[in-house]
Amino acid sequence: MHAAARRLGLALLFVDNEDNPAKAIANADSLLTEGIDILIEFHRHDATNHLIATKCHAAGVPVIAINFPLPGTYYFGADGYKTGWLAGVFLRQYAQKEWSNRSSTCLILPTEGVEATQHTRTVGLLEALKKQSPKGSLPEVKVAPCGVTMQDGYQLTKQFLREKNRRPLRLLVAAFSDPLGIGAKRALKEAGLGESSVIASQGGTIEARRHIRRGGTLKATVAYFPESYGETVLKLAIKILEGEHPPLTTHTDHILLTADNISEFYNEKNDAKL
Q: Is residue 159 part of a domain?
């Protein structure tokens, strides 16, 4: 985004919310005091986002929310339903191919964040699982508590296995972020479930791409292409400031990345260097 601002001749003030609601509110207040023309906000907490949106509306400052919607503002980012759908299609097709539609369990690892975003992604996932499933072969669905980090993914998956007091013979894992998926991969490997489980995560980050290329249970990630956000978001901001009325919602592109197609979108040598 900094590079795009330089190319477009824009002054960009950057502050870090540190994933802290109080800090996010203080940052918004400070930026509004500075007299900004538009706020671009990335923050995962629902109640905080409502308050920031209210403050900006009162100040007459338009807002573009990235990935986590703010009420009554422009939105750019993931299409929650589509991302869930893509993961669900992959998991179901994997089960059909590898396990011949025998009974399985789907563990959902949601991220902390705006509740509506999580719900939309879950609906897309479940509808894809249902549509892709022959009659009578739907997996049992379990939803873990929300997490954020790799350690969360590791602990939540271990907790699931302990609570079931058994090792599911066939386990589908829908991790709603790449860190959660990477953590789940470690837990499943330690539990000896490498051959009877599969993970699809969200994000398409370099860490997830590296894990997919290495092999193992993390076999797919839904890409969001955040490296393209800067130019797109700032051009959207210019349109708004020039008085145009673009659509309230703009989605990034999404592709399901697997070992078969990663190299079509990301160069392996470049990923290894970063």
A: yes
